[in-house]
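Pair request: fold both.
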Amino acid sequence: MLIAYVPRAGALVSEVVAADANIPAGAVWLDLIAPEAFEDRTIERALGIEIPTREEMREIEASSRLYAERGARYMTLSVLCGAQTDTPEVTPVTFILTDAVLVTVRYSEPKAFPLLADRLRRACPDPLSAETLLAELLDTIIDRVADVLEMCGDGIDRLSRRTFEPQAKGSDANQIYRAILTQLGRKERLTSYARESLSSLTRLLAFLGADIVEGHTLSPKGRDAVKSMMRDVTGLSDYAVFLVTKLQFLLDATIGMVSLEQNNIIKIFAVLSVVLMPPTLIASIYGMNFQHMPELAQPYGYPLALCAMVVSGILPYLFFKWRRWL
């Protein structure tokens, strides 16, 4: 699908471009969503630029993601999608910046795109240039990454309290720690995706601010916007590293808690074996089938043996309690 955005009367108006239609006059943003071949040809015919394929967008080499060609900047950014779902992902989005038009090519639905489109439909700067539109779009993407990291930070704080708070009586500690480990894994995946997106943003902003296209440089306002976004990305990257450190600490702490629970179970079995060892010894002695055992002829031999087994089991238990091993 090809959507053209045209500024009219202080607002950004969207229009779906049909297969046999031309690009509307005055369009500053052409958004290609899972484009078909004829839509690529429409853009290429109108602007004289080449639209990268989906396979080319997935290339990880910097030279394949950031380059200049025919007076336009080609910039492929890894954008975080589905942050509020159980299956977040990082998908490539290509920005093609020319003097008059911004072209975006994507095969996903990052939330930043509809957010910016809705905001500019209500009010947009006049005049609205492709450079300003790109800065607004990148700033919205950075805001979304910041929201995701803030959400991760709040979730990590909740998991920290849940890990170290006393467990209620009768609660299943194994189930609780299993759930915590699952949530930690999800937070780690989301944070790593956010870091990947921020790393991609850092490279894109450095490329955008460089004078590499002959005859086309950013305006002073655009350069200031790039510097401001670079500072934001640097701060968010530092915060993401901080969250990763907290996640690693919580992971180690949770595994330590699980080990403590397992040690408590093993300790109970060890204590039981020691407590039952003297009674077992007494029972083994009087269970031997020798003919001459004087105690066997005593009328109170059986109750005395039982009493001896009970006492020999209680004494180790009291000793363990006194030493605070239980």
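--- second member of the pair ---
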Amino acid sequence: MSIYVNKNTKVITQGITGKTGQFHTEKCQEYANGSNCFVAGVNPKKAGESIFNIPIYASVKEAAVQTGATCSVIYVPPAGAAAAIWEAVEADLDFVVCITEGIPIRDMLMVRNKMKEKEANGGKKTLLLGPNCPGIITPDEIKIGIMPGHIHKKGRIGVVSRSGTLTYEAVAQLTELGIGQSSAVGIGGDPINGLKHIDVMQAFNDDPDTDAVIMIGEIGGPDEAEAALWCKDNMKKPVVGFIAGVTAPPGKRMGHAGALISGGADTADAKLAVMEECGFKVTRNPSEMGKLLKALI
């Protein structure tokens, strides 16, 4: 079992003919069951052609109808990425992963509002992961995104993070200790994104094959605190927590567009305090995440 995607998930690559889309689609194809999972690409100008034996279609809707795909991954450049997300949502896909970094906030606001409106009108709910995220992996089954596959090992620990590199760090530490992962999810560092920590924690809590979770956050925004408060009342599994940016001064943006302290509850110290109060085992040292988790289980 895994959360959101598994070895039977059929995936469309939006932006498959671009340099980034080509590079990562090939890597994802080579990982585990990837050759069966990646079934379509989209580029209106190259419809009817194929790349890596993957047929290219004119639209996401056509690709989904022809192949039965329920998921897409987006490597479209920033200017067109929000429109690509909306095309996938309009095609009623279950799950959309947007890797693209640098999408204008106004574009994301418009897409998010349209997604909410569609749902409110009784339309299908599409889950969005990202943008500006590394993607999602269920080890030994499927990798959708840009994470290095070789550091992952199949197992029973969930990982969720706003930072791509810290996702890899946590996973590599676990693997080195002989501890495998059920799924690793990078939710992305933009201020307006799809799935939040709380959504992924709920999914891990409901997953019978996840025994414990590492949750990694950053300065800026209320997401980690909201997830921690939900976990206090609902989470049945042990959680290790880490927040990046302990040394960040207020008002300075660190790395991600969403990692900006406005002051008060969104500093690293404030978030760590909330997580600790809610029963998380927290660390201020990222190199200890794996060891702490091992001690908990």
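Observation on the second member. The CA atoms of residues 13 and 238 lie 35 Å apart.
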